[in-house]
Amino acid sequence: MLRVLQGTVLMAFSALSVAGAPGTPDEIKVPAGEKLVLKAHATGFQIYTCKAAGDRPAQWELKAPEAELHDRKGTVIVHHFAGPTWKHKDGSEVTGKASAHVDSPDASSIPWLLVSATGHTGEGVFSKVSSIQRINTRGGKPPAGAECTAANNGAESKSSYAADYYFYRPAK
Question: What does the DSSP assignment read for the chain?
Fold first, then answer.
């Protein structure tokens, strides 16, 4: 079963500063000595799977993101998918693991994240990325818990979302 949840997807960039992510909470700030190499706006989906296990109630678990990241002109420059992985149009990729999060100021949206790079493939923009921030999220939360039951174990649901991503690398 695959369901697409309705949601608003923002196509325009949020106001972004050339110095990095403005107003970012301390919990998800990048380590000192890193510099911004790319910022992009994502639109896409968070894909959830209904999982029932043992005695615990069935619940939605994140399977993977599926999003396109756009430059200021709206051109798709990055594909974001399971891993989490980001693949730039130049062929370079970075995978990561969330190292910190804060709740979004918008209670109906997924958290803001700091992601630490765990691997790289190829040469290009992402070959030296060390940290990634996901901020200004809109949407992306899983369906209501009541929609995930033992009877529909394994069902998938797509929840539309938008966010701004900032990619950093060591300054030296």
Answer: -EEEE------SPPP-BTTB-TT--GGGPPPTTEEEEEEEEEEEEEEEEEEEETTEEEEEEEEEEEEEEE-TTS-EEEEEETTTEEEETTS-EEEEEEEEEE--SSTTBPPEEEEEEEEEESSSTTTT--EEEEEEEEEBPPPPGGG--GGGTT-EEEEEEEEEEEEEEE--
Segment 50-71, tens digit of pLDDT: 998 888 889 999 999 999 999 9
Whether the link from the prior residue into 84 is cis, omega within 30° of 0, is yes
Radius of gyration of the chain (CA): 16
Q: Which amino acid is at 64?
A: A
Structure tokens at 67: 């999003």
Tens digit of pLDDT for each residue in 91-133? Answer: 999 999 999 999 999 999 999 999 999 999 999 999 999 999 9
Specify whether the CB–CB gap between 158 and 125 falls below 8 A.
Answer: no
